[in-house]
Amino acid sequence: MESFKLSADAIVAQDPELAILPVGSLEQHGPHLPIMTDWAIATELGRRVAGLTGGFLLPALPISTCREHMGKKGSVWMEPPTFYQMMNDIILSLKVQGFKRVVILQCHGGIFIMPPLVRDLNAKYNPDLMVVNIDACIFFDRLYKEGIYETNTELHAGEGETSMMLAIAPETVDMSKAVDEVPNIPRSYLSYGSIFRGSASGVWGESKCATAEKGEKALTRSAEMTVEEMEKAFAYMEAKKPFGYSNF
Q1: Which residues on neighbouring strands pair with residue 20, listed in sequence order?
Q2: Which of 157, 159, 193, 195 has its CA at a distance of 20 to 30 angstroms from the CA of residue 216?
Q3: The dihedral of CA 131, 137, 138, 144: what is its sign?
Q4: Does the predicted model carry a pTM greater than 0.70?
């Protein structure tokens, strides 16, 4: 059972040290996927990571920063400073309660203020609090190399995300409208214009290759790799000794 469905007394009895904070987004995902895609994937990945670790699972946050998807109704964002402060407050509330480890599951690639947030928290509060951010985008290439995905063009609403949604909520996916479109621009150009400047459909990848079977395999491996990566980062922080006046 997800931790947020338990009573406070039950959570006290478990006394977990790790908190799991999935973060999604409400944004366009082409003509074939729902705007809840990132949130749905964050919710499912969080559930699986909690099952592997026994950590305290928070409900996935549905809204973050996504101005790179401006142009069609349905994408909802907050300003980066607002997101920064909200995340800072949530994580410090966990620290006050005795959580020593927080892993953020970033299931929307466009949260460009996330690295400064994580760096600042660790710089201020190590070793009493350790915060790790796992950006799910880092797994796309690994899943391709492991043979789970057929294509290596995934960035948004392509084979990977579409496969995961077919596994999580197939009733929300319309494969008759699936699109293969790979913009001829680097990802960094999303700072210069919305995704629609490079992709008429809003897709960045090859969604027609998606299947529910691939999605289930990808979710399983993503959860496993998340745990592997977060444990490496936590071990790195735990091994640090004071340097001059700093524990960071």
Answers
A1: 57, 103
A2: 195
A3: positive
A4: yes
